[in-house]
Amino acid sequence: MSLLLNILWLLFGGIFVFLGYIAGGIALCLTLIGIPWGVQLFKLAIFSLFPFGQDTRMRDNQPFAGVPNVLLNVIWLVFGGFWVVLNHLFWGLFLCLTIIGIPFGIQHFKMVKLGVWPFGRVIVDLKSLQPA
User: Fold this and answer.
1) Mean pLDDT over residues 3-22, rounded?
2) Closest-CA residue to 37 (of 82, 1, 72)
3) Other CB atoms closer than 10 Å to residue 120's CB: what's the count?
4) pLDDT tens across 28-80, in order?
5) Is the separation of the CB atoms in 92 and 112 below 8 Å?
6) How many C-beta atoms surround the C-beta of residue 104 within 10 A?
7) Which N-terminal stretch is annotated as signal sequence (predicted)?
8) What per-residue confidence (pLDDT) applies to 39?
9) 2 vs 6: CA distance, rounded Å
């Protein structure tokens, strides 16, 4: 079922979300200072390519990573992450207005978590988290 929903996601706009994040990531990586944030946009791009069957979690076992992650996330929110979050909130709410759009709206709400706090988060496959 995830495969079918991911294909529909791509056909009905997910490819544009992916391409937008790739373009932003490339633009940021062209500057030396923007590389850390460009890498986070690539993370968002990968997540937005096939969001069904995936989620994000905080990375475990990060010794000494707390303060730099918080600092980088605050800079992220101030200089662009806020607009990423607003974009996904808007599309999530808009898509949830119809019954057919609810699964796609939920995927946008999942991307809000990554848009707010990308540093220190990893993308996980939900199938690998289920007990056998």
Assistant:
1) 91
2) 72
3) 16
4) 999 989 999 999 999 999 999 999 989 888 877 666 667 888 899 999 999 88
5) yes
6) 22
7) none
8) 93
9) 6
CA separation (Å) from 108 to 53, 54, 72, 81, 87? 13, 12, 23, 14, 9
DSSP string, 46-109: HHHHS-TTEEEEEPS--TT-HHHHHHHHHHHIIIIIHHHHHHHHHHHHHHTTSTTTHHHHHHHH
Amino acid code (one letter) for 113: K
Tokens for 25? 């990531």
123 DSSP 8-state letter:
E
Contact 70, 27 (CB under 8 A): no
Global pTM reads 0.83
Amino acid at 130: Q
If one counts every other C-beta atom within 10 angstroms of the C-beta of residue 90, the result is 11
